[in-house]
Design goal:
Number of helices of chain A: 0
Radius of gyration of chain A: 13 Å
Structural class of chain A: mainly beta
Largest interface: A-B, 26 and 21 residues
Order of helices and strands of chain A: EEEEEEEEEEE
Number of helices of chain B: 0
Helix content of chain A: under 10%
Order of helices and strands of chain B: EEEEEEEEEEE
Radius of gyration of chain B: 13 Å
Largest sheet of chain B: 7 strands, mixed
Distance between the termini of chain B: 36 Å
Number of strands of chain B: 11
Number of strands of chain A: 11
Structural class of chain B: mainly beta
Oligomer: heterodimer
Chain lengths: 110, 116
């Protein structure tokens, strides 16, 4: 089955800096790569996703890149704000399986 | 539309007791998923429904776990004879689509289970 590894486990940045979180996956059949943000006491919230026929996708300050050959994908947050502080999860999957990474705790210091 | 609703938010039980959690999905969503999340980990898929049909249940953690969605609307997850290792956050999600598990998921806030 799929195995997803996520790095780093914790990340601290200064407000206004960029943050990058990286994930690798093992199953070449995976074709869907979402990213979720989870705040304390809440369920994960989808922030951006990408399918395998696209190499990059951007939504305002958030972008995701996918390298299918190397089996890795990354989340980029620019101009970080304190409200971006949360735990971020990547996931990889297909119609029959989806696995989440262990999460990255992002802290944005004002 | 108030999003995915889960009840109760917290459940404390003694080992060996049965517990049941309820999930009300977003009303127009045809798919409903159950996930488990332990501290410091990402959500772990358990099972999902398309309308009232349970399409995948092999990932339920043991035969003590069962889920229903009798009328294709709300769902319940039951754990029988709870064990301390069952302590976790149980998340429900819903989606509208036809891509199986690879969908945009809308999660509820979860039910935190503590087994003493």
């Amino acid at each position: 089955g799929e195995n997803v590894e996520q790095h780093p486990s914790t990340l601290s940045v200064q407000e206004g800096d960029s943050a990058v979180i990286k994930c690798t996956y093992s199953d070449s059949a995976s074709n869907y790569f979402p990213w979720y943000k989870q705040e304390l006491g809440k369920g994960p919230q989808l922030i951006i996703d990408i399918r395998s026929n696209v190499g990059e996708k951007k939504d305002q300050r958030i972008a995701v890149t996918l390298n299918k050959t190397a089996k890795h994908f990354s989340l980029h947050i620019t101009e970080t704000q304190p409200e971006d502080s949360a735990v971020y999860f990547c996931a990889a999957g297909n119609n029959n399986d989806m696995r989440f990474g262990a999460g990255t705790r992002l802290t944005v210091k004002p | 539309d108030t999003g995915v609703s889960q009840n109760p938010r917290h459940k404390i039980t003694k080992r060996g007791q049965n517990v049941t959690f309820r999930c009300d999905p977003i009303s127009e969503h045809n798919r409903l998923y159950w996930y488990r999340q332990t501290l410091g980990q990402g959500p772990e898929f358990l099972t999902y429904f398309q309308n009232e049909a349970q399409l995948e249940k092999s990932r339920l953690l043991s035969d003590r776990f069962s889920a229903e969605r009798p009328k294709g609307s709300f769902s319940t997850l039951e754990i029988q004879r709870t064990e301390q290792g069952d302590s976790a956050m149980y998340l429900c999600a819903s989606s509208l689509g036809d891509r199986g598990i690879a969908e945009k998921l809308f999660f509820g806030s979860g039910t935190q289970l503590s087994v003493l």
